[in-house]
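Sharing a chain and its predicted structure for anyone who wants a worked example. Both blocks are below, sequence first, tokens second.
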Amino acid sequence: MNSIMKAMDVHTWSRPEQVLVRHLHLDLDVRFDRKVLEGSVRLDIERTVGDELILDTRDLTIHGVDGAAGWELGEQDRILGAPLKIRLQGDGPVTVRYATSPAASGLQWLDPPQTAGKRHPFLYTQSQAIHARSWIPLQDTPGVRVTFTAEIRVPEGLRAVMGAAMGGGGRFEMPQAVPSYLIALAAGDLGFRELGPRSGVYAEPSVVDATIPPRAPGRRGAEAPGS
């Protein structure tokens, strides 16, 4: 585990020096009608000492934990949320089934009148600094970095995007280990415009073209005048 968490982070309940989360797999439905995310997260772990995995949560409804000997949700703190204490029964992954609160601090829900197109709702996340715990039970500290994959389902006609490589059917993959505050999700009526071979812009269709800067004549990569 190298030198992870040499100093204790006072803003997390987790104890990654004892049990460390290495990878997350999110399987979530975006429920615009109730303004919640609902589904599960599978956590791949690395045990050093002890048999208890502690995760950060805030205002989450925990439906159950699979692959564990037992679990307990601790008392809620106004700032830190509540610790989810999971008694491990081996070195395998554990899966937490849960739902977020409509008032989750890391989820911003926009009704159609608040959007540019005025027709569809919109969702975006803000996990920094310690708001990831309000939509994912995890070790919410910059001292822990994880890879992640995700399957995100949205209503027909809408699209989900994440800060990760996009596959088909709402699947995403982040092979580089990132801190929890960089895990990001957005969902709504989104269009795409390519900026280059490795970059592009997602925005509502009515404004997506305005996000593309015009190319100045003679700029490298642009056509020269008269060509």
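Comments welcome. The CA atoms of residues 160 and 187 lie 4 Å apart.
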